[in-house]
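SUBJECT: protein chain
CONTENTS: sequence, structure tokens:
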Amino acid sequence: MFYILVQDSGFSNEVMELTKVFYPHFIFRIVDSLDHMSEEDWCLQCLYSDENSMITTWVKLYSGRMLACEKKSEERIQGEPVGLERRKQVKNAIKRCVYDMLSEYTGRQYKWGILTGIRPTKIVHQLFDKGFSDTDVKEILIDEYRISKEKSELLLNTAKTQRPLLINNYEKKISLYIHIPICRTKCLYCSFPSDTLEHCKAFIDDYLTALTHELNEVVAPLLLRGYTIQTLYIGGGTPTALHNSQLESLLKAVCQIVDVKDVDEFTVEGGRPDSLNEENMNIMKKYGVTRLSINPQTMNDDILKLIGRDHTVDQVLSCYYKAREIGFPVINMDVILGLPGESVRSVSRTMDFLSELNPENLTVHTLAIKRSSILKESLQQFKLPAGEEMMEMLEMSQNTVKKMGLIPYYLYRQKYMLGNLENVGYARPGTECIYNIQMMEEQQTIIAVGAGAVSKIYYKDQDRIERVPNVKNIAEYISRNQEMIGRKRKALNLS
């Protein structure tokens, strides 16, 4: 057991997540004393004082009840911050002290430094909004957040791509997300709230009826009040796992509410190539879909089989060429680095295939070991790439996308990622997915409908997001549909 003991419990979670980066194989627990610590346990203790213009931090690492190492740091408060801004400076000072001590003790440094949050680009946007230059921002990322030069440049370039697409936000411009929590099979690594087609096929028609009702009761009134939809995204799960007639029924219902000709982009997450066919791609094209995701995850048949993807490399290629023939303007493809059984050689094969296909968008994920996934429950059965191998895979993917002429346009991180790395979306300039940017940067209201969908209502004057979730279970969503509608209408002042 690894205990975390922090003077102010409000900082405990972030200290724990940072410590997990150095000790990923321990079970962690936040405590308020060391009374129950045994000789086999570890503990990290943080004390601090925040007086006048100085933050003093003491961090101690115990192995058993023996002091393994300790560090003390003193930092001056920058400016005269109060409230949340002052707490942020205290929190970061504590995290710097923890990081520096553990880095010295273990001999390891991590490219993302003290960052544990999933949206690091937010920091860059906040600094730009305060008038800092590129050079200033990079220095702050390196010095204050301990981020490597390489990742600082990645953050800077990603944020600079995003800013022209964020600056035109206004209160009544929103995005719409429609969730189809259904897949043909469950992937080994997946933790999303989705069900298999076989298990829920009896509910699908009722689900689409409930979802359409939610659209009519929430989205239609917003449009009547002068709101405009910038981006429309149908995701999952696998929306194209629906029967073709069901998919057409859904798209028809959407188009009866939303004039898709006025939407900047209309995306369907086709996802798994085994769910796509000429008929449903023609249906999507007919109803104005401009962006289609075809996500192989890897271009190696043995690994596809191992992770529960019910398709082959040949199906990926056939699906991609058919989508090109039908004429979708933008195709996105997703890959995951670090899948079980994967090697540098297999990643090289994947990237060679994708380079040849040359999609407009390519998202490169790093495998995350998610708590509710099949992979997490059976981790001992699989061989996963180690840190150095992951870095080689990532470097290879970055070299490939650079040669393809793609630039980073959105970035996020997750807990328990192999190598403590990141997920990056790349795009050919001018084809960036605006929805992905808005979703990650949280500077726009996103109305989300369907089981498990979470709406985010943005209050610009407070720079604050209010989350309005729907229940995850499909049957429960159907039976409580009016309640879900009521939550949104109340939050949006439509009642």
